[in-house]
Amino acid sequence: MRLTLTALSLLALLHSARGQEQLQHPKKYIVDEEGKIYWNRHLPVYIRLTPDPSQEGVPMKSHSSSYVDPYFLDTEGQNWIRSRWATDQTTHRTIEPKQEAMWEVYADGLPPFTKVDYSSGRTYLKQGKRYASQKLLLRFPAQDGLVGVEETYVSINGQVYQTIKDSLLLTRAQEYRLRYYSVDKVGNVEEAREITFVLDLSSPKTKLDLVGESYENILSHQTKIELKAEDEDAGLSKIQYSLDDGPVRNYLSPISLYALSEGEHTLSYYASDLVGNQEEKQTYEFYLDRTGPFITSETLGDKFMTNGKEYSSGRTRVKLTALDNKAGIKEIFYSLNSEAYEPYDKPFYIKSKNGNTTIRYYAVDRVGNKSQSSLGGGEGGTSLSTPYLDLTGPKLSFAYQGKMFAMRDTTYISPETKIKLSGYDSEAGLQKLSYSLDNGGEQDYAEPFSVIEAGKHTLDYYGYDNVNNRNHESLFFIVDNQGPEIFPTFSITPVGHRELDSATTVDVYPKHVLLFLSASDTEVGFERMEYSINDGLPKAYSSALGGFAPQKDFTIKATAYDKLNNSTQKLIRFGVSN
Q1: Which residue from 211, 472, 476, 525 could staple onto 224, CB 3.0 to 4.6 Å apart?
Q2: Which CATH number is 395-479 given?
Q3: Whose CA is closest to 29, among 102, 79, 65, 100?
Q4: Residue 372 gets which letter from DSSP?
Q5: Are 297 and 258 in contact (CB under 8 A)?
Q6: The domains spanning 295-388 and 395-479 adopt the same CATH topology
């Protein structure tokens, strides 16, 4: 009879907290079919005499020994109860030749011995427990040296002992702690033995980890694949793997991808435990990316080429652009003139002095591949020599063309005076000049110009070079468009008046009269004076005018000039008497 252990049968065995204690088995004797007596050696023996087999008889007593009431059989196996001599059952005479009368009895004081036989697939002994990967069929063959085995008992996981007639089938994945023993036919009880089986029907679980650079399912050739497996029961035996259509290999250390070509690949892997449970094959598909990014540079802003040399300004920026065939760009780095590399995130200005700047740069994709030009060169990257960096604007100057007068820190010019602006740039070259008068709009300078409006003025003027560097200067001046005021003075008072016409009356002076001319200027001062008499040629005035002819009328045209050549005229009309 086979006992199959299932979840329901386990529940049925839950009977007592003391179920793991061995059952009580009485010591006894048996008489077999041949009439042989088998006596438990640990039982007492009482001998009775009776003339009739149907009667109970009289217990025998011994007055010569204290070891016969009761008596214990002394020898394992065959024992004899003897009389001195055998007698004939008819004549009751001693049989000749003489021989003993002997009664056989077999004493059995030794318990049986039970072992466990099991049939399963692969098993593994670990820490005193026997692990199996398939259902277990257990048999408990027992042997007894004399009388024979009566029953074999098994307790499962501390439950009540049950008799086992044939075998025990374990089908559920769990741990089974079995205690077992046998009893022979006269009640000798074997000391219980114990064995633990673990029915392990589960396979290991393998986890894949990436050691190194990766992005989604894109890996670097420097990345390694690490496989880790765990098994809860029997323990891990091995992990096996294959790449693409290659051979199956035992996993010993992280898998190197260095020898793989760029492109799509498949890793297959699985683990086995120590009792042969094998994990279902897993696959990991990935793309091996060996190609670094492609990176380009571009200068943005002011640039100018002259005489075969390119110039840029401080506003010029450098833009770096990188493209990657698969994983995508992770970072771009750049260095100016061998300084430490900085991460690039947007176009940057070239922070340097005048001159050429060397920029080195490289790009890294998401799996650590660097741009081709930097391979083998560490962080050397690609070199870019920027256009000559021109950070300074033109040098500016001005000049007055025409009259000007400086007094202390103030410059005066006339409306006819022209302002000439000049600029010079030794690097990118002068592009243009512009100016703004009295905070007005900026306008390009083309040629010398004059300022007509009298008064104080501020001229801001600018110079731009060919990369749009600008310099600025300011100029303050006063435009003076007024000539001096003329003051005529006669040396004598008039002696009368005379009508020149119906509308004009003039003073008349004696013939020895002198005319003094003077002038005053409120801004830059008087410079010189000219005069003419009665529309004659102008002459420079240097002293008082006299010698006027009598009985005539005179018109003196006086012209006064200041230091800016501003002029005023005045007509002086008078007559001379006899």
Answers
A1: 211
A2: 2.60.40.10
A3: 79
A4: G
A5: no
A6: yes
Residues 6+ apart with CB under 8 A from 435: 421, 442, 443, 445, 459, 460, 461, 462
Half-sphere exposure of residue 415, counting CA atoms within 13 Å on the CB side?
A: 9
- Summarised one tens digit per residue, pLDDT across range 327-350 is 999 999 998 888 899 999 999 887
Q: Are 72 and 66 in contact (CB under 8 A)?
A: no
State the pTM of this model: 0.58
14 has a pLDDT exceeding 70:
no
The β-bridge relationship of strands 410-413 and 404-407 is antiparallel
- Give residue 3's region: left, alpha or beta (phi > 0; psi -120 to 50): beta
8 A C-beta contact, residue 190 and residue 177: no
Residues 169 and 9: their CA atoms lie apart, in Å, by 11
The answer to whether domain 485-576 has CATH 1.20.1290.10 is no
| pLDDT (0 to 100) of residue 168 | 93
Note the CATH number of domain 205-289: 2.60.40.10
Neighbours of 446 (CB within 10 A): 10
* CATH T-level fold of 295-388: Immunoglobulin-like (2.60.40)
Cα–Cα distance, 124 to 140 (Å, whole number): 20
Element (H, E) at 7: helix 7-12
Q: Is the Cβ–Cβ distance between 4 and 171 less than 8 Å? A: yes
Q: What is the three-class DSSP state of 461? A: strand
Residue ranges per structural domain of the chain: 1-201, 205-289, 295-388, 395-479, 485-576
